[in-house]
Amino acid sequence: MKLGLVIDLDTCVGCHACAVACKQWNASGTTGPLTDFEPYGTAPTGVWFNRIRHYEVDDYPNSKTVNAPMSCMHCDDAACVTVCPTGASYKREEDGIVLVDQSKCMGCNLCAWACPYGARELDEDQGVMKKCTLCVDRIYDEALPPEDRQPACVLTCPTHARFFGDLDDPESEVSTLVRERGGEAMMPELGYAPVNKYLPPRNRPPAPVVERTAPEEEGAGGLLSRWLDRQKDAFDKLGAGRGGPSTAGRASGRGAGAHATMRPGGVIGPDGAGLGTGPDGGPGGSVGRGTGDGSNAGRGGGDPGREPGGGPGEGSNGGLGGGMGSGSHAAGTSGSGGTPS
Amino acid sequence: MNPAFSVIFFTVTAGAGYGLLILLAFARIAGLAPDISPDQVAGTGLLGLVLVTAGLLSSTLHLANPRNAWRSFVRFRTSWLSREAVFAVLFYPLALAWLVVEWTQGYVGASATLGVLTAILAVVVLVCTAMIYASLKTIRQWNTSLTPVNFVLLAMLLGSLVFLVVLAALDLPTSRLASVALVVLATAALVKLVYFHWIGQPAGPTINTALGFTRATVRLLDVGHASDTFHTREFGFEVARAKLIWTRVASVALAFVLPLALVAGLFGAPGVGHLALAATSAYVGVFLERWLFFAEARHVVNLYHGAQRT
Asked: Does domain B5-304 have CATH number 3.40.50.2300?
């Protein structure tokens, strides 16, 4: 038997719930406590068996955020066990779980040096090395209902991105997932044969990119008439989008504009109109564009700030031009930078 | 890697002691130190054992739970740290037996045999210490056969210089040992320069292989912890590049160049003052070298913390 975890990098949202559940269970488990220093101070530090890091893979526009939860990989050829001088570190014959006998550890740190995955952390209060136990004090507990005999991290994962099982059994759920999804080990070139596997993000068709239409009458009419045209366009589209007509309060709120900056693509402007189809708020192209329309952004951002109960036209412009750049989030700064109207 | 003072002091000081005993045994067999009396041999040997003991005591300071240090003898079969502990303890009775035979002027055959065995065991302990580092595939700057070669050569370098000081202080001829010391100095310097060149070559895992995304760039967005962790303290040691380069220069100058010049007699015939300066300079230089050995080592956990390569 080769017990281990399979983690789906496609569905993991990086919420750290697994790390918190792990800390909660194991702080009072067989290897507890997991000492924390300054837990409520400015620089809390302590022992965690599970840590989640966040990465960006590939470059814009193909980039993807990947959240990588990492705990002990329970390697088949565990270097941490090989280097341990005291016999405190061992790998169980029966199920392959790598454990530390707390009563034998002398705290020399050599196993942590030998581990490429950062799975081992010294409890600096107790002077002994601690690590993921695969919740060995839980998965065999017959007092628990069978569906609860899983590691705490697996049970708690809200997106079901973690799977626990026997990777030696080719028909198990975890082995099937690894086979079908092309699961891979991390840093396999060091040769430690990690048991835990990671399922790569699924391939999806690329998101459609809407080209920006060429502005009509380039240069003619000047800034003011182009701005008026945009207000007219936006006004015409009111009600065609997702949202209904806005209340004056929302149109002026700082929060509304700041909220819009968090959502590239389907931006909901302060007026509540769906601006995703607008000339400026097209999907995929909205981030840089707001700042490109500098004067427009400044004006749009300035207007709601100056006149909190601004009409729907002005409000929508705030979302359109300045939505991605500064928007009404910077009602003061952006407004002062723009041309006062 | 975090350069822990206790470990640096241990490897350098115990290394000097083992080196002194290796050179003493070699000198007795090859006649490098003619006219040395049995008392002086035993005294020099005891000085070596004092250095070894000071180093070994310091090595226990980096243990977080030294009460369990006695357990470190049990995994001899797989662990280099365990082997180091076993051989370091076995070294004492053997070295003492040899020194007693030398001191009492027992059988020449017995003293030669015990001397050779003592020197071999000293080299074995040094290699075991070095292999603790060289066996770690997670730190590519250490995972090389240059590591044990460096450890043995630098120990012999310090040992030969300390032995020279002892001989000069006892008004004994030093010229034969000095020529051996020059060879050791030159060889050690050469191997260290090869090492500096070798660790400058790109190699080892990258952030791509660490995460399994080998066909695209990978960048860290967020490391997931708000303040220091055990790993950032232990593995995240960073020094400015300029400081590393200047430390390298100082280390090479103090450990090799100045002692070479002093022992070779560039500043006049090497008297006890010159040799003491050479030994002190070499000790400081090797101390800096050992600090660099840790400071320049980059653990692969740093890849998960955002380093592109080690």
From this structure: no
